[in-house]
Amino acid sequence: MKEYICSNCKTPFDDLAIKQGDVSWYQGMPVREEIQVCPVCKSTEFYKISEIMNKIEAVLNYYDLDWYDLSDLMEEKI
């Protein structure tokens, strides 16, 4: 399973890309900030899939449901 998912393009991926950010000064020397981004669309908005899975598990536990119940709910027509 992939480690991250982009909230912009919805692409799952394993490794973040690095984008060069703005230049700032540190002790009189120019320093370029490195920003972690999605390797596909370069968005800075992404989530760890394991954290999302943990939140889903917590909701399922709260409502005394399991993953099978969740798939049943997704198939229901409202």
What does this structure look like?
It is a single chain. The chain is 29% helix and 35% strand. It is of the alpha+beta class. It has one domain. It has a three-stranded antiparallel beta sheet with strand order 2-1-5. β3 and β4 form a beta hairpin. The longest helix has 14 residues, at 49-62. It is elongated, with a radius of gyration of 19 Å. The two termini are 31 Å apart. The mean pLDDT is 90.
Spatial strand order of the main sheet? 2-1-5
Low-confidence stretches: none
Query: So what's the overall shape?
Result: elongated
Mean pLDDT comes to: 90
**What portion of residues is helical?**
25-40%
Cα separation of the termini: 31 Å
Number of domains: 1
Total of DSSP H or I helical runs spanning 4+ residues: 2
Percent of residues in β-strands: 25-35%
Jot down its keywords:
78 residues; alpha+beta; two-stranded antiparallel ribbon; 5 strands; 35% strand
